[in-house]
Specification:
9 strands; rRNA_MeTrfase/Polyamine_Synth (chains A, B); alpha/beta; Rossmann fold; globular; homodimer; BpsA (chains A, B); two-stranded antiparallel sheet; WH-like_DNA-bd_sf (chains A, B)
Chain lengths: 355, 355
């Protein structure tokens, strides 16, 4: 058995999450680039418990140590290992113009400015609902992405459980949709949106408080061309947000957008999601754009499991939490799932940690 | 039943491929932007037979006509329909810096120049093997993408059935892989690569002639960290290229890259591919970047079924054929498929047309 595989097994015991050899390799590669734990999580595309488990095992086995400034540094033994295995530093070729999304957020600069201006007093992300806001550049890019795929103009659009990002507000502000319904559990966000709609005389958009653990009323089902969401990465939450989102689509050809991260779920979980999407719900996946969604570190970071299990106490200095952007298309015979969810692992399970 | 749905049903009868309402809408949206049939195919993200069927039905029903220069134009009845349905022109927000790939091809400008210089006398794409070369910018971006995901440096890499794009050559020229094996059916390309390797003294790369309809010999199975391919979009070819590619991976965490297009297969077929990947082969899909791969129109275009079924005789003037870029990761228990294929629909079926 290779040394990396042995380390992976130890890290798995340490963290109780699925880890294989390649994950250890990516953490070592990241360590050649940065000593900041949160940057290492970002570069290695791993759930926090996995990255933390690997770093802890590397320290325990003498390959790394924590310096006075809480940087994680390689020891000589660590450098020797890296040389022996031919591991090289993480490289980042992300396009600076579009931040890697393939679509530049500034292409409609007036739209971007309006969004920034109107949302400067937005409600802060709070822990109760697993909130975390994406950057305004991300939110605006989501709307542009939808527009470039023909999923915005004159469409009936439902935004569910993603309003901490103010995505529904941005869709409404584009003034290109036929109608916009925003569903969120957080009354602060619903009021924020409805006030802006009233103020600007936007009468085709509406925001309503709803707990997605409850089934949708029948008037919402089968009524939308497009839904947008940003679910927590547990399987029950995925069903509640995405299964229910699909249930609101009018017909085949209906479209869904949502973020999925590798920071709170593994690539193993991703396969489960993908099997559910294609085999159970009857949709095709047309896009997965990694690192499309960049999140502003939430004020409640210190209180999270992520902060507690991290090998260092130092807080994130920059953006470290990203998610990919999925687009799906409903095919004939797609399934409308709308059952009640009463699961206590709705927000958090063994791979998640940022709630 | 809506008028668009009626048109979709008629187009389906006309073309004998799966078409739904949304597809008709996208073609109408494209028609507001261009009269060039090949640009319409590009913008509507449809298989050629589907786009052609829709255009033919629109003409038959009086919504469009073909002008003297073989442009497809809307009639007044067509404009009335578009207005009634609120269809707006196709919009394109593709990042000009990275051509929408998220990674700029010029980030290592020396590498790009070397590739251009060495490949200026490359063999032309020929019809026998369903060839079609991507632009040099695409090929170089593929290598940069692999590098940025940790799938290049010191890796054993297999490039199978994608050498019309000279992807294996580019991987070898990066001089970052541990070893490169290139497999292709076309001896011209194999000789071209091997000559360059000899000339430049690249001794960790080798090219070999192989027909992927035949199973791999055992020495190739389970030997690679990463495979790269570009399969024809039939189900038998998908198994032969991608199933066999997965069979060559050393272990869990192994990675595959390949192009899949919506010009020669529908989103229905994509779901079949995705079910095979996740449920049968045991891999997770980590990336789907639409329009990553841009193809230079092949010299044999006139001889293709695409040219024959098109509503106009006019040839493509610009790039119109694109494919998405998939990345997959093998999970524990992944399946090594390596059976013989003797299928006469290897290159072409009802949705394909560019062979």
């Amino acid at each position: 058995m290779s040394l990396l595989t042995e380390l992976a097994i130890k890290a798995r015991e340490e963290s109780q999450v699925r880890i294989y050899k390649k994950n250890v390799e990516r953490v070592l590669s990241a360590l050649l680039k940065s000593g900041d734990f949160w940057q290492i999580v970002d570069m290695s595309d791993l759930p926090v418990p996995a990255a933390s488990g690997i770093v802890k095992v590397l320290i325990k086995e003498g390959y790394a140590f924590i310096d006075d400034e809480e940087n994680i540094r390689l020891t000589q033994k660590g450098y020797d290992l890296i040389k022996e295995l031919g591991i090289e530093p993480y490289v980042d070729y992300t396009c600076q113009a579009c931040e890697g999304r393939g679509i530049p957020f500034y292409i409609d600069i007036e739209f971007y400015r309006t969004f920034i201006q109107l949302t400067k007093d937005r409600p802060k992300a709070i822990r109760d609902y697993d909130q975390g806001s994406v950057t305004p550049e991300t939110t605006v890019s989501r709307v542009l992405f939808m527009d470039s795929r023909g999923d915005l103009r004159n469409k009936d659009i439902l935004v569910l459980g993603a309003e901490d990002d103010l995505t529904g507000l941005a869709v409404a502000l584009s003034r290109k949709a036929k109608s916009v319904l925003i569903i969120d559990i957080d009354k602060r966000l619903i009021d924020f949106d409805n006030n802006i709609f009233k103020e600007l005389g936007i009468d085709n958009a509406e925001a309503r408080v709803w707990d997605l653990r409850n089934p949708f009323p029948s008037e919402i089902l089968g009524r939308y061309d497009v839904f947008v969401s940003d679910p927590p990465e547990t399987l029950p939450a995925f069903r509640a947000f995405i299964g229910r989102g699909i249930a609101t689509l009018k017909e085949e050809g209906g479209v869904g957008y949502f973020g999925l991260t590798l920071r709170d779920s593994s690539v193993f979980r991703w396969r489960d999601f993908q099997i559910a999407l294609t085999s159970e719900f009857g949709v095709a996946i047309t896009d997965i754009v990694q690192d499309f969604n960049a999140y502003i570190t939430w004020d409640y970071h210190k209180e999270t499991k992520a902060a507690q299990i991290a090998p260092v106490r130092r807080e994130p200095k920059d953006i470290w939490y990203r998610s990919s952007w999925y687009r799906i298309e409903a095919l004939p015979g797609f399934k409308r799932w709308n059952e009640a969810i009463s699961d206590d692992v709705f927000y958090l399970d063994e791979e998640g940690s940022t709630t």
